[in-house]
Amino acid sequence: MKALAHYGTHILSTGSSVPSICVTNHMLSDTIDTSDEWISSRTGITERRILPSNQSIIDIATEASVEALNKGFLKAYDLDLILFATSTPNDLFGSASQLQTSLGATQAASFDITAACSGFVIALTVGHQFIQTGMYRNILVVGADTLSQWVDWSDRTTCILFGDGAGAVILQRSSTNDILSFKLNTNGSESHQLRISCHTSVKNHATQEILYPQKLQHGYQYLTMNGKEVYKFAVSAVPASIVKCLNQINIDTDKITWLLLHQANQRILETVADKLKITDDKVISNIKFYGNTSAASIPIALNETFNSGHICNGDIIAISGFGAGLTWGTILMKWNIIQ
Fold this sequence. Notes:
339 residues; Peroxisomal Thiolase, Chain A, domain 1
């Protein structure tokens, strides 16, 4: 069997999009028993964006993707593969094909990756593998979620946390490799700590059961979360994952230029940074403005930080996602600007 080629993966460009509707903590305090001080002191969140009823996840995913394509000087037909990390698709069968159509990326294969808040990191590693083997040259990786549709807006323990958004990154085959190391993990025994469960009931057709198969009635519940357990999981698993990635390439934490974690809770960001002895000025955070946007949080923050001019050539970025599953994953990347 012919050996697979090994190419490098270059982070070519980024993009992001958030809905226009802004819901502040003060607005929430008008409908539920909460306050701006209560929310912001516990989460770091002051507002979040919510998708209007006349838009879909494909709209914001398309906007994020178009920005990435434009910045990378590519056309949609240059894409070989689209990886759509989302847990809130338009269609239970997946929405990557809808995104492909929206972009006009007629040459691109496409499929969804469902891994909640870890989804974007996992999708990046999948794309990295396709490029390393020489299978594809240009891959669009999109993280997008609209969890506002899945929270109970009368439950102040969950509805205050989540917002909607989309982010995109284009990976390109290169002679150099921007992905330095990665580590993915799952602990399914703790899946009950954070989930949107599906309850199924069976309707029997007593006298016609043989002729007519049983009909299944499906109903997804609101998002439920054990906040204390998720916090304990994150501040334990994430630092360990980052250290393992550092050990793979024999570098210390002081070589990290930026720490970019899934934007779940400001306290989690601060605790993980403290455990790794990473100073606050190296921690990327935009949770104040968007809340937890699930698979979108990392690419949105990455794009905004780059657009603001803070990420420079040669910077080493530790990226870590964590969430439902329970799943978590880390990527160490080196930011290379190819002239």
